[in-house]
Design goal:
Structural class of chain A: mainly alpha
Largest sheet of chain A: 2 strands, antiparallel
Oligomer: homotetramer
Number of helices of chain A: 16
Strand order of the largest sheet of chain A: 1-2
Number of domains of chain A: 3
Largest interface: A-D, 100 and 100 residues
Radius of gyration of chain A: 28 Å
Strand content of chain A: 5-15%
CATH superfamily of the largest domain in chain A: Fumarase/aspartase (Central domain)
Order of helices and strands of chain A: HHHHHHHEEHEHEHHEHHEHHH
């Protein structure tokens, strides 16, 4: 039964359309919604809307659901619409009237905001951990093969000499900037919407929002209830932007590795057990992992724009459009985490082809060096540049 | 077993990452891949690569798979990677050596292109049918309530009088343009890639591509095998653009209906059994269907841009990135078809509030008419305009 | 003076903000707006709103403006807001009262729609011509160097042998599909909005819309005036999609040429007079043209997304948001035309490095051929595949 | 003369295509490039590549250019390509050989990175100031009219009572979050790329990067030279994301005001001197400013997408594609600053229609309150909810 049903049956096709796959997506929010519900019950106890024993019953029930959910046994049905309803229905069924009281002084609107923010805080920590791991993997690769000299490219043309350490180090530094952005996102996420209800606060009852915020370890309170609603999608788009940044770093690394592992470049070799083959060409050894990581940047990018596009041109207050910001967020988080893991695995096994790297350091790469040697002798740079260019041309 | 496995075990995590959810997505291609495989087998028979009885065996096996697939009993496993492998494995398991021969003179590359184009032709017909149904629904609504006069808006401000027939008719005409684009897309799709193999044709064997194209009812042949690969994603993005256009038409209709059904506008009433409620506010009757249709335009839009972004900056020939263009296509097709269905259902039950429409036809809406009356009497338009403006100002 | 001014001065900053750079953008519409205005005047003459001599005066004035505009001497000022106002003001200033009559029975809304569609028809012809030229350039290149054999790539790895003719031919075929889409767009554009006024038609006066449509050589009439407004932006987005498709073809060609002209691949050489250098590295010869063409695909893509995003979630009838769809359209057209021209110029001078192409045809490229030779001898394909794979492995 | 010209004339059309409008865009970087060049010259003096008097000459020349630029008299020509070349050419022309020395130990690559980051730091301060002003404007509006009660909406349907203070306050809080993101962006921007040259550092000469970083007031150094290149576009996309967030806040405010100022809602009145009219309808008073602000969100969004799309799938090191990230950044900054200014101006003059707000507080808005009153009496919430819903239905 839906939380808002009051006698008029909703068309079946409307139900299917409006619920969509929300009941499946919500599985990952169950745990966080229960945690928030426990804090909410305690608060209702504190302000005497619930008795101590009611609070205890609810806490027990909600912990049961958390346990069931962790073992994959708490399934939200299509009829339930979402995790909030499934949870309330479970409580009512098992514990009677107390279940009907849990929704006092809150709305699904602030409930989902709270569950989402708790989930987001959790996932931000996960992503940060994986980024740090990726940095370590790069560090190990640098330790092992960093001193090898290789050509640096601009415009995909050989430019100047560099080293494997500098090349791989650039990704470490990019990830360091990405971490900084993830931290900035965390600060935005870390504010409690619980108690803003449907965006207009809770009348009549005197709830204690500081209490729930503290229980849930939020750093602060979102005071303005309309702002809590305004942040929906907006906040997610900032989260997704920081994921796009991580994926952009991986996109460049994957692009480099794909190019450098072609027969023609041969600067690196990919681990054979991480390549796939062709159904028709017996000789093929394809860098599918790298290609997919490269492509998945665009997936995360498009999901970010989906959210940023959905939430525009909408007036204040909750609009159902916002429901569709959930899946893009989940997709982006999953994609980024998987990509970080697989790239870390792959980079661990990449082999630098030292002799090919050395062979590629052809004379023209040192043209800038030659020019600077002339500068040291007092030739103005622009003239030294032209002299070297001329001499290279003649030697061809 | 994968089609390309040759002794080196692929890392489990790599398998999971590269296959992704492709094995699930491919379920909807099974039928089309079998149809194409039957045509391919017949052709192999025609050029004496297969015997008549081998062709018959394969046809039998493939028809079995089609039947299993239709009843939901042909499941592609993760280990199979995709529908092509699952089908070849089924045939080899059940019919022995002949299964190992089916892949002669083709690659998974032209196979998936063929299956996709057959699927796309099928879905284009479905979408066209649903668009026509939506046009009919609008026609019925116009027949019933079209003569009601209502304000026309520009800048969301009352502008000039119009009728329900003109308002709803504009969506019919938009859908007519959308149909034209769907037809143009169909023409692009209707060309056979079968026999282009991995993008470089089939050496040694003299295959008959005209034969398979005809068997599969393609209007023509894609002759250049590299172009067959180049079309991947590119073609899908054109398909998706035509779906975006349909969704844009629905987005505007949904936006109008949401606005016109507010308490403040009250020009139309939505069917109660197609509205949903709030978990906290007992009085609410929300136009969720319309809001979701509105938002789903952005989903389809973002999926289109996902594909258009994935396929860029890639050199010629198949790149694994292209695998990720499949899901966006499917999502767009499903979303558009569902949205057309639900909007048709809803529009059938929308009620025009005739008396409110009439009440809204306030005097200022006739200002242009007044100006033209002066024009008829010989006043230059720009002067008539200023006179009417002045008179309206005084009457305020 | 603005067409709608009636005594209340608009804030200067508001004027600057709302006009934006529209007065500059509109320069390219002047000619088309005049052509449409001549047709409109003639029609007003036909229905006796204007006298014959008034029509003659207006036609004279409008032709003056066309001539001035062609020689760059008709400048729209910021105060005029747009071309429509500049034109009306010119006529009123020079020819008196008759200028005040030209706006009878039309609105800037249908005026801009008409001017845009005339402009779009013109530019579609231009783009088509340039696409055909590009196809010819490719044809010449194929004639000259098409028979050279080169490696075909999948996953950026050497796959199977192909020829320059097949490789370059794939772009010809892609452009053929692009032409088809441009034609489909032309059909959508080729309908007259003139006479739909502000989206609600023209009251009181009996205008002859068929007459103006015929004068302007439109294939048909947009009958529903609200649909004329609904098409704004929607139509442009379809135009832009077809441009994106052309740019996608060029993006892939540019990507190939950039890769194939690296020192490592060296399959092609770029004309020296079309490369640029580095300010620091004297030896550099950079393929900037190709890199910019590659990047400009994303420009056109983003402009398309801009339009598709601006026009969503807006209710029926003109909304000022639509003004911002003009610049993206112009940018896309200019970018595509310039890119086609420069790529045609460049491809004419690309040199295939025949000996490098041949050297790159290493043995593994013929693995599929070897497998098919075994198939011809009766070995089932999948077994032949495994035998060849094994033999390649041993020979390494 | 171009910095890299060495005897081979570049095709004129290639020059036009590659330079594009870069020479115009670069006008705004002249000042920042000169500031960086002064620091660079001083450093070259410090390490004895330049004499004291050469440094003095360069400083004099560069300050001249800054002064010329500020008064609009330093024009970059198409032949110069960009600001870096125009500046070097000016110095060489006026001060002879010393001009040819300024480019020692740097590349245009690190030059543009440095100029851009200095420019970005400057603009971030501007945007922050304008955001703070907007917050103040909202604060004043709240002080004046904040106590007025008005309906809060969800799903565009009347939901619960709220106040003007809460409604407008939500935008203040959104802007506070936006400021936080702008600060995070500032931290990312605030690192010196000067001395990373073309992405591979400076050989032979022992430059002092800490010195220039300190001179230019950068908080830290980008140590890895390849990372300096990797940050191009990536950093800008983060800047643009933070601008998109600001515009999103304005988009919602504009959407609310457009809706609330319709005849039907009439909760607010817009200042007449900030509205525009229609060319055909004498009565119209259109909220063009709001519509354009709403639309400009999509402009900024698409420009962000443009940059994020351009920079993907590119290998390490500078690629000319990156040149095209400059214009989107400038467009986004200009658009955001202009939109903040105009919205601040407009909000100052918005009038709340107190009596209409009160009239709109119809009984159903208090349904939640009624339910909570029952809860206070001990009725479980879900039952209270159903009782109130029933009672509302009966009273209809």
């Amino acid at each position: 039964m839906k939380l808002w049903e009051k006698g008029i049956a909703v068309d079946k096709e409307v139900e299917a359309f409006t619920v969509g796959n929300d009941y499946l997506l919500d599985q990952r929010l169950v745990e966080f919604d229960c945690i928030a519900s426990i804090a909410h019950s305690k608060m209702l106890g504190k302000i005497n809307v619930l008795t101590k024993s009611e609070v205890a019953q609810l806490e027990k029930g909600l912990n049961e659901i958390i346990a069931l959910s962790k073992s994959g046994k708490f399934q939200i049905s299509k009829q339930d619409e979402d995790c909030h309803t499934a949870i309330e229905n479970y409580l009512t069924e098992k514990y009677g009237d107390v279940g009907k009281k849990i929704h006092t002084a809150r709305s699904r609107n602030d409930q989902v905001l709270t569950a989402l923010r708790l989930y987001e805080k959790h996932e931000l920590q996960q992503v940060k951990k994986l980024v740090a791991e990726m940095q370590n993997t790069l560090q190990t690769a640098i330790k092992n093969q960093g001193s090898v000299k290789m050509p640096g490219y601009t415009h995909m043309q050989r430019a100047m000499p560099t080293t494997v350490a500098t090349w791989l180090g650039s990704f470490q530094d990019a990830l360091a900037d990405d971490l900084q952005l993830l931290d900035a996102t965390f600060t935005l996420v870390d504010a409690s919407p619980l108690g803003t209800a449907a965006g207009f606060g809770v009348p009549v009852l005197e709830i204690d929002r500081e209490f729930t915020a503290k229980e849930l370890k939020f750093a602060k309170l979102i005071k303005n209830p309309i702002y809590a609603q305004l942040s929906r999608g907006k906040l997610e788009s900032s989260f997704m932007h920081s994921l796009t940044q991580v994926m952009l770093t991986l996109n460049k690394l994957a692009t480099d590795l794909t190019l450098f592992s072609t027969t023609e470049f041969s600067l690196v070799s990919l681990p054979e057990n991480m390549c796939t083959g062709s159904s028709i060409m017996p000789q093929k050894k394809n860098p599918d992992v790298l290609e997919l990581v490269r492509a998945k940047y665009h997936v995360v990018l498009a999901e970010e724009f989906k959210v940023k596009s959905i939430i525009a041109n909408l007036p204040s207050g909750y609009n159902r459009d916002l429901q569709l910001t959930k899946e893009p967020l989940f997709t982006s988080i999953d994609t980024t985490e998987q990509s970080l893991k697989i790239m870390s695995l792959l980079v661990k096994q990449v082999k630098i082809n030292e002799s090919n790297c050395t062979k590629s350091l052809t004379r023209e790469l040192f043209a800038t060096e030659e020019a600077y040697k002339l500068v040291k002798k007092g030739v103005p740079f622009r003239e030294a540049y032209r002299q070297v260019a001329q001499s290279l041309k003649e030697k061809k």
